[in-house]
Every structure is written in structure tokens, then in C-alpha cells.
Amino acid sequence: MLNIKENVSLKDLTTFKIGGLARFFTEAKTEEEVIEALTFAEEKNVPTYVLGDGSNVLVSDKGFPGLVLAVAIKGLRTIEKEKTVTAIVGAGNEWDGFVDFCVRKDWAGIECLSGIPGKIGGAPVQNIGAYGQSVHETITEVKVIEIKTRTPKVLKNDDCGFSYRKSIFNTTEKGKYIVTSVTFHLKPHSEPTVTYQDLINWFVDPIKNPRGKKPTLEKVRQATLEIRSGKGLLKGNYQNAGSFFKNVIIREDQFKKIEEIVLREKEGKPGCCGGKWNWEEKDGKRKIATACLVHCAGFAPGTRDGKVGTSPKQTLAVTNFDDASAEEVMQFVEKIRSTVKSKFGVQIEIEPELVGFE
């Protein structure tokens, strides 16, 4: 039997520590309870929002006028073969706990995704990625419940429409499904992925890797956690949602213009675009580190605007420093976006989900 609560504050259920009340709130530990919750929402004629661990979301000051559903379906089942490992993981499991489990088992494929906050159910929705890996590379199936019909379905990788930080779950079919479990294929006893510059630098650093040891899955996880911590991107470092803006992918002709501006603007701004800040993409386009653009636009780490600002360690992490409101956060966010647009001619996209905003 579901325990459905009324007028629950969402503030303490998000890493931003911001947000109004949920009209209704409940936690579902089984698929049957998810269906029961959806039936309740239909009977009350209210919308449903699925909340993970609140790490990639900004809730409005008005809260949410419907049912906030926390999916807490646990469970982990593995099938080991000589060259592959299949892991079927409940949507309510912690993502980083699963990464740690795989690394300890010496299963490669998600080691660079260490330290990303959130639940398993959110991984395919956001198509999380970092430091040279993207979760869609290991996902084979996503089990869901269709909200309208309240029936279970299994979606294959190709059905999910994965692209950079996107899937059907947060674009074309947003609000249609609730993820209940995810199936991953991992590689036992395989080499770790060390292609991202920050990781490469870590392993050639004589202090961090004094004997120049060959990267292992455990060492890559350790390095990734240290790098994320240094950028203030581990859960609990600051009151924020991690990176608030996605990296920018543009055409090569657009990049040439932006490169000229960056080379001009970075003068006199220590730390601005100091390392590698752009990468060639497979389709002839180029990815730009949005942190570079934000910094060059005048928003260095630690920039404050009242109760809100950029993290002292990372320009992309818009941070609640002193009991800020969601409105104050969005005003600061729009100031950043409009300044970057004016200076570089590109519109940067917001990464966290905005809940309860009109």
C-alpha cells in the first residue's frame, strides 16, 4: 500500500536546496506501486513528476501542483560470460554505487562516469556522460512503464534516441515513460578508457602517478573522483545541480569566429580557457567547453550576484550560496546566457530539468 503524503517540501529533496511544495508525494518500491501511483494521479486529475535523487533538477518556488513520484525500485542481477557481463539494475539504485561495484568486479565501460550523482533511472534519461564515456555505449535495454496506459514495455538501445545528453525520455517522448530498470553490457577484465585530457594529464603527473603505472579501472575511478572533486562537482560539495549548462556543438565556420573572440577575451583573465577547450566531433562539427565561454564572458569561478553565483571551483555550476530562491537562480542563469549569446553568438542550453516553471 502506497504512503501518499500531501504538501511535501521539495527543498530538502534536491541538491540545490531550493523548491516549493509538492501537492502529493510518494515513493514506489515496485512496478506495481508505480502503477498504483499513476492510477492515483489519474483519479486526482493531477500531473506526475518522477524525482530521482534531486541532483539534476531545479524546482520552482511554487513547487509542483501534482504527484511527485520517487522511484525506489532496487535490485541488481548479473549474467557473466567470457567476454561480456550483463547487469540488470533497478532504477532506484544509486548510480555511483553501481559504478563502484563494476570497477571492483573489474568490469569496464562506465569507470569514467564515477562520481556522477543520481539514480540508475536517470542515466538513460539524461544520457549521462563524462571524461570520454557516455552511458548509451553500454545500455542495451531500458524497461519502462508507459504513463498513459500504465503498461510495462522494454525499449532497445536504438529505440531510445540517444545523442549528446539527450534521449527520447527528455525530448520527443518526455513525460511518456517511467524507467523501472536498465540493462547494461560491460566488458570483464578490459582496459579502461583514458582519452579525456584531464585523465591523461592525471596519469602523466609524477605526483599523482609517481611510478607512471599503467591505468587500471580502479585508478581511473580514483582519478575521475579527484578531478570532479577539484571542480566541486561531487554531490555535497556545494548546493547546486552540478553543471548547469551543456557543452556547445557547432559548425566549423562558427567555431573559427568564436576562436578569434576567445583568443582576444582570455587575455588578462587567469584560468580562462587555459587548457584544451574544444574538440573535433565525428560529424565534422566541433564541441566547445561552455565553461570557457562563460568564463570569457565575465563569469569566473566564484562570481557572486546576491545569493547566487558560480561555484568557486567551476563556472558551469550555478550555486545557491545563501538560501536563494529559484527565481534568483534563473535570473542569474539568464544573465549568463544572454551575455554569452551577445559575445559569442551561441545560445547555451540548460542541463538540469526545470520543474514547476510555467
Automatic annotation (TrEMBL):
UniProt-listed PROSITE patterns: FAD_PCMH
Cofactors: FAD
Domain spans labelled FAD-binding PCMH-type: 17-189
Keyword Oxidoreductase: yes
Enzyme Commission number(s) of this protein: 1.3.1.98
Predominant location: cytoplasm
Domain of life: Bacteria
Localization per record: Cytoplasm
Active-site annotation: 165, 243 (proton donor), 351
Protein name: UDP-N-acetylenolpyruvoylglucosamine reductase
Species of the source: Candidatus Colwellbacteria bacterium RIFCSPHIGHO2_12_FULL_44_17
